[in-house]
Automatic annotation (TrEMBL):
<protein>
    <submittedName>
        <fullName>IN35 protein</fullName>
    </submittedName>
</protein>
<feature type="domain" description="NID">
    <location>
        <begin position="38"/>
        <end position="136"/>
    </location>
</feature>
<dbReference type="InterPro" id="IPR009909">
    <property type="entry name" value="Nmi/IFP35_dom"/>
</dbReference>
<dbReference type="GO" id="GO:0005737">
    <property type="term" value="C:cytoplasm"/>
</dbReference>
<feature type="domain" description="NID">
    <location>
        <begin position="146"/>
        <end position="233"/>
    </location>
</feature>
<keyword id="KW-0391">Immunity</keyword>
<keyword id="KW-0963">Cytoplasm</keyword>
<dbReference type="GO" id="GO:0045088">
    <property type="term" value="P:regulation of innate immune response"/>
</dbReference>
<keyword id="KW-0964">Secreted</keyword>
<dbReference type="GO" id="GO:0045087">
    <property type="term" value="P:innate immune response"/>
</dbReference>
<dbReference type="Pfam" id="PF07292">
    <property type="entry name" value="NID"/>
</dbReference>
<keyword id="KW-0539">Nucleus</keyword>
<comment type="similarity">
    <text>Belongs to the NMI family.</text>
</comment>
<dbReference type="GO" id="GO:0005634">
    <property type="term" value="C:nucleus"/>
</dbReference>
<keyword id="KW-0399">Innate immunity</keyword>
<dbReference type="GO" id="GO:0005615">
    <property type="term" value="C:extracellular space"/>
</dbReference>
<dbReference type="InterPro" id="IPR012677">
    <property type="entry name" value="Nucleotide-bd_a/b_plait_sf"/>
</dbReference>
Length: 253
C-alpha cells in the first residue's frame, strides 16, 4: 500500500498454470518387420480399414494388358492391422548433475565441432574464467549444445548463477548461455495397445520380383479403387530372408 501507483504494460507470453511443469513426449515406436512383408500407408483412414476388413487380397504382378489370362501372374497376401504399444503414463525422476553444465547459444565460427570443443575446454579449464579442469566435453547434435563435465565438485554453481558468460575465442568475444545438466530416470512406464489408423501390414509376400518391382506392384494394387484401395502415402517392402525395423511417429496430419 505504500508503493506509488504505476501503469504497466505486460508484453510477455501467458501460459496455463497446469502446463508449466508438463513434460511433452514425442513417441517413436520401433516395429520389427519380418521378411516377406510390407507396410502400406494410405492417405485416408477409411481406405486402410476397408483393406483390413477384406483380409485376403490377390495382387496382379503382370502389368501388361495384352497378356493372355493364362500368362498373368498373381499372388495372394493377407492384410492385418499394425498393433503397437504406446505410452499411456510416464513418471521420470530428474537428477541435477554436480559436475556438468550445458553450454548453449554457441557462436557460428565456421569450424568443426571438435575444434569448438577444444576452444571451450581451454576457456573453461582456466580458474580466471570461473572454471577448473575439464574432465570431458561432448557436442549434442540433437540440441546444438555442449555438455561440459568438470573433474571437481563445486565448480558449476557459480557458472550457473551467472546464466550468461562471455568467452574469448581467438580475438573475438561471444556470449554463451550456461544451464544446469539434468538427467532423467524412468521410474514408472505404462503402455496401452493401439492400432495405426492409416497403415496396414501385408503378410505372405513371395520372393518372385525384385524389391523395386514388388513395391510398385503393391502400390499399384492398393491405390486402385476397384480393389477397395485409395491414395497411397508410402510403401515399405521387406523381401523374404531379410528383416527391417520400421519407426512410427505421431500422426500430425
Amino acid at each position: 500500500s505504500a508503493l506509488p501507483e504505476k501503469k504497466m504494460i505486460f508484453k510477455g507470453l501467458t501460459v496455463n498454470k497446469e502446463d508449466i511443469n508438463k513434460l511433452m513426449l514425442t513417441p517413436q515406436i520401433h516395429y520389427p518387420l519380418p521378411g516377406g512383408s510390407a507396410l502400406v500407408t494410405f492417405e485416408d483412414v477409411k481406405v486402410a480399414q476397408r483393406i483390413i476388413e477384406a483380409r485376403e487380397h490377390t495382387v496382379e504382378l503382370s502389368f501388361w494388358e495384352e497378356l493372355e489370362e493364362h500368362d498373368r501372374c498373381r499372388m495372394r497376401v493377407q492384410a492385418v492391422p499394425v498393433e503397437i504399444l504406446v505410452p499411456s503414463a510416464l513418471e521420470v525422476r530428474l537428477t541435477r548433475s554436480s559436475r556438468s553444465i550445458l553450454v548453449s547459444d554457441l557462436p557460428s565460427l565456421g569450424i568443426s565441432n571438435e575444434a569448438l570443443l577444444d576452444k571451450l575446454e581451454l576457456f573453461f579449464s582456466k580458474k580466471k574464467n570461473g572454471g577448473s579442469e575439464v574432465e570431458s566435453s561432448e557436442f549434442l547434435d540433437d540440441s546444438g549444445q555442449v555438455l561440459l563435465t568438470f573433474a571437481q565438485d563445486g565448480v558449476i554453481e557459480p557458472l550457473i548463477e551467472k546464466r550468461h558468460i562471455q568467452i574469448l575465442i581467438g580475438k573475438g568475444k561471444y556470449e554463451v548461455k550456461i544451464s544446469p545438466c539434468m538427467s532423467g530416470d524412468i521410474t514408472n512406464l505404462q503402455l496401452q495397445p493401439s492400432c495405426c489408423p492409416r497403415t496396414v501390414l501385408i503378410l505372405g509376400i513371395p520372393d518372385v520380383l525384385s524389391e523395386e518391382s514388388m513395391r510398385d506392384a503393391l502400390e499399384i494394387h492398393f491405390q486402385r479403387a476397384s480393389n477397395g484401395g485409395g491414395e497411397v502415402d508410402a510403401v515399405a517392402y521387406v523381401p523374404a530372408g531379410r528383416t527391417a525395423l520400421a519407426v512410427f511417429v505421431e500422426d500430425t496430419g
